[in-house]
Specification:
MetI-like fold, 2 strands, two-stranded antiparallel sheet, 62% helix, 319 residues, single chain, 13 helices, mainly alpha
């Protein structure tokens, strides 16, 4: 008597074969979840043009940081013997001076490196000062509300109604031109518009349940603002930092172009462009190289800032 066939076995007597159930496969390893910053980097790195701009910007910043080490000459030294022609004209690019010399026989490559260092320093410092003021004014207005909000926003409207550049010129003349003065006036007049954006962001955060819960258990307002409100402004701070730096660099270039920025003989991109305008026909390289560097610097900052804004947009998360 044949034994009863079990499940998944064949019965040769009857010519019937029952297929075996497949062996359970090993569970797939769960996909590692990305952090918020990891997701931002993933979406940012997929954009080719901003990635190239970020690498180029990093190279420019490294050149600016290492200028005292890698610059071939002192940017203020005048090569009266080998830096000018027999007629006293600046020299074009050559084996000794890779980017040529200016009207006083100074090495253009060294001046460009140090000028880039000065412009980036002023742009970053001015943007940091402006963003700090914007976060304080906008954050306090949005969190305090009522009378404080009304008073601060009317003050912001007043600042925005002032013709900024002319007032900057007036302050620079009164305070004596210099790097610290340029940074100060940029920070003082560039914070008003971002403060409105930070205020609107704080107003939306102010209504969140965890903020209301912290208030209900008696957490001090300053602690709530520092521990729970300010960290949520960090993405917006990073975005507007990268977008304010080009504006600050352009302001410095404009002030230096009219002779009210970085005092000579210290170079900046704006002052180098100003020095080169009188040689734009006889020695165009004096004007061309700092102009290209300034345009490249501003375009890279704008591309990186725009890409960061898209990458940090919560509505685009996971796309």
């Amino acid at each position: 008597m044949a034994e009863a066939a079990g499940p998944g076995t064949s019965t040769p007597e009857r010519g019937i074969s029952v297929p075996r159930s497949p062996a359970p496969s090993a569970p797939r390893e769960a996909r590692k979840s990305l952090t918020w910053w990891g997701d931002v980097w993933r979406r940012f790195s997929r954009q080719r043009v901003p990635m190239v701009a970020a690498l180029l910007l990093l190279a420019l910043v490294l050149v600016a940081l290492l200028a005292p080490v890698v610059a071939p000459d002192d940017p203020t030294y005048q090569f009266r013997d080998i830096g000018v022609s027999a007629l006293g004209q600046p020299l074009p690019p050559n084996a000794r001076f890779w980017l040529g010399t200016d009207g006083l026989g100074r090495d253009m490559l060294s001046r460009l490196m140090f000028g880039l260092r000065t412009s980036i320093t002023i742009g970053l410092a001015g943007a940091v000062g402006a963003i700090t003021l914007a976060v304080l004014v906008g954050g306090i207005a949005g969190y305090a509300g009522k009378t404080v909000d009304f008073a601060l926003m009317r003050f912001v409207d007043f600042v925005l109604s002032i013709p900024t550049f002319f007032l900057i010129l007036l302050l620079v003349v009164m305070l004596k031109p210099g790097v610290s003065v340029v940074i100060f006036v940029i920070a003082v007049f560039a914070w008003a518009y971002p403060s409105r954006l930070f205020r609107s962001q704080v107003l939306s955060i102010r209504r969140q349940d965890y903020i209301l819960a912290a208030e209900a258990i008696g957490v001090p307002n300053w602690r709530i603002f520092v521990r729970h409100v300010l960290p949520h402004l960090l993405p917006l701070v990073i975005i507007y930092m990268t977008l304010l730096v080009p504006s600050a660099i352009f302001t410095e270039a404009g002030l230096s172009f009219v002779g009210l920025g970085v005092p000579p003989p210290n170079p900046s991109l704006g002052s180098m462009i100003y020095d080169g305008q009188q040689y734009y026909r006889a020695a165009p390289w004096i004007l061309l190289f700092p102009g290209i560097t300034l345009a490249l610097l501003v375009v890279c900052f704008n591309l990186v800032g725009t890409a960061l804004r898209d990458a940090m947009d919560p509505q685009r998360r996971g796309k």
